[in-house]
Specification:
binds farnesyl diphosphate, Undecaprenyl pyrophosphate synthetase, alpha/beta, 8 helices, 14% strand
């Protein structure tokens, strides 16, 4: 495993777990096999992030657009999530990971919604946090936040002039979570694909050629090194 530099890792890393389908195709396997290998890659990287001292890991597990895929593929991803959460809940006291879910969970099966609620409630006092973006879209998140703020104005809880960037952030799924300093997209695609649109205003993007199921600790080390090489000035000098 490559040695990470001595600099502190980013506090919050976000990842678009892309390339599962191509990984499976290269091997003549069904797409669900790619997602299964992708879930393993997630386990590896989540553990490694903990070793490095990363405080928040946010992953794009299922987008608002992913419902357009075949029933078999959607069902396969949901099954992987269910299995992962069942395992995480039973290992909760050992792993001490806090779970949050960004997205509209109401479209998920009642069983999966219950697992998400259990995982979130039972882990709320732990520190290291994994945020699963599930039925998530960045624009959808912003529209929902705008509606919720408007509803609070209508209800007389606040005024239009109260709205600041900070207050708006409180209406997002990511409330109380610092913005990611680093966003990684493997698989060679160079798009943001509706991921964390608000939160990524100052994030460093690192695009990598490796497919997500092949992504390992040495790839995360490389992305962190690239992040440290860049001069982060937030628009200043
Ligand atoms: C994108 O690759 C990946 C997804 C849409 C699903 C990601 C889901 C997982 C990694 C499994 C979730 C479960 C856990 C436990 C984290 P793609 O299918 O778009 O790949 P392609 O671009 O090569 O077709």
């Amino acid at each position: 495993m490559a040695q990470t530099n001595e600099l502190a890792p980013p506090r919050h890393i976000a990842i678009i777990m892309d390339g599962n389908g191509r990984w499976a195709k290269q091997r003549g396997l069904p797409r669900t096999a790619g997602h299964s290998a992708g879930a393993e890659a997630f386990r590896r990287i989540a553990n490694y992030c903990r070793t490095l001292g990363v405080e928040y890991l946010t992953v794009y597990a299922f987008s608002t657009e992913n419902w357009k895929r075949s029933q078999e593929e959607v069902g396969g991803i949901m099954l992987l999530l269910r299995r992962y959460l069942e395992e995480a809940i039973s290992d909760m006291e050992k792993n001490k990971v806090r779970f949050r879910f960004f997205g509209d969970l109401t479209r998920l099966s009642p069983q999966l919604q219950k697992l998400c609620a259990d995982a979130q409630n039972r882990s709320k006092d732990y520190d290291v946090q994994v945020n699963f973006c599930l039925n998530y879209g960045g624009r959808d998140e912003i529209v929902r936040a705008a509606r919720a703020f408007a509803a609070d104005v209508q209800a007389g809880k606040c005024q239009v002039s109260d709205l600041t960037e900070e207050l708006f952030g409180d209406y997002l799924y990511s409330r109380d979570v610092p913005d990611p300093e680093l966003i990684i997209r493997p698989s060679g695609e160079m798009r943001t694909s509706n991921f964390l649109l608000w939160q990524s205003a100052y994030s460093e993007y690192v695009f990598m050629d490796v497919l997500w199921p092949d992504f390992g600790p040495e790839d995360l080390d490389k992305a962190i090194e690239e992040y440290h090489r860049r001069n982060r000035r937030f628009g200043g000098v």
